[in-house]
Amino acid sequence: MRLFRGVQAALSRLVREVTVLDFLPAATREHILDDRKLLKHPVTHVSWRDAVATPSVRTNVSRRKPSGSTLPAAVTNSSVSRGDRLTPDGKFRCNTWQGEFPEHNTGADGYLQTAPVDAFGPNDYGLYNVVENVWEWCLDWFSPDYHRTDEYDHDNPTGPESGDERVMRGGSHLCHRSWYSRYRLGARSKNISDSSAGNIGFRCVVDAAGG
Q1: Environment class of 101 (CB within 10 Å of its CB; exposed 0-12, middle 13-18, buried 19+)
Q2: Mean pLDDT confidence for 2-31
Q3: Which residues are within 8 A (CB) of 87 and not within 5 positions of it... i.e. 6 or more apart?
């Protein structure tokens, strides 16, 4: 894990999406899960408000730079993809929809819905599933043209100070090349803060320099 060298043990859970096991209290998990394997899948149906109310996130969410554990900014990890090929060497490296959308998913990548958060192996930075599987909430407000304004900081870019919708990054297992290709790390979407869905989750980031 070259990105987090020296703090690997402390950050071992920050290289992947937040799982059902991470998010739900033990008593709750016992009542709602029939398949224990799902504990390693990303937690879904989590709104932005739910994500920032998570104890490790909420104390830092108001800060403009990650400090402690918080949601990523929209530009975080913008250079840590695997390249521009969906199946390098003929192997699946992320969880997408195969077959005809939305009629039939062949599950050729091994998963019909979400995949475990450590599926497909890490990239060269030690990060898992940085594209697809589930959309991941970001700290920033969404704006399609904020980067063109004088307020935009090119050295430490963030979103605007206010807005109506939050940024989501990464795409999900429902993305298909026929109409909604989100296989690149730079792609972004948006949603309102209290919205949730079965293909939306989140991951946390940490200020490695201060870790």
Answers
A1: middle
A2: 58
A3: 93
pLDDT bracket for residue 207 (50, 70, 90):
low
Joined tokens for residue 84: 């521009």
In whole angstroms, give the CA distance from residue 203 to residue 5: 19
Take residue 22 and report the two structure tokens written for it: 């991470």
Answer yes or no: are the C-beta atoms of 187 and 172 closer than 8 Å.
Answer: no
Amino acid at residue number 31: H
What's 19's DSSP letter?
B
Q: In Å, what is the CA distance from 62 to each residue of 53, 149, 161, 191?
A: 12, 22, 11, 19
Q: Which residue has the higher pLDDT, 16 or 104?
A: 104
pTM score above 0.70: yes
pLDDT, residue 3, reads: 30
Under a CB-based contact definition with an 8 Å cutoff, are residues 182 and 193 in contact?
no
Q: Give the count of beta carbons closer than 10 Å to the beta carbon of residue 35.
A: 7
Q: Residue 141 belongs to what H/E stretch? A: strand 135-141
Burial of 168 by CB count in 10 Å (0-12 exposed, 13-18 middle, 19+ buried)? buried
pLDDT at 81: 44
pLDDT in tens, 112-140: 999 999 998 888 888 888 888 999 999 89
CATH number for 1-77+89-211 (one of 3.40.640.10, 3.90.1010.10, 3.90.1580.10, 3.10.50.40): it is 3.90.1580.10
Using alpha carbons, select from 83, 111, 120 the residue that is nearest to residue 173: 111
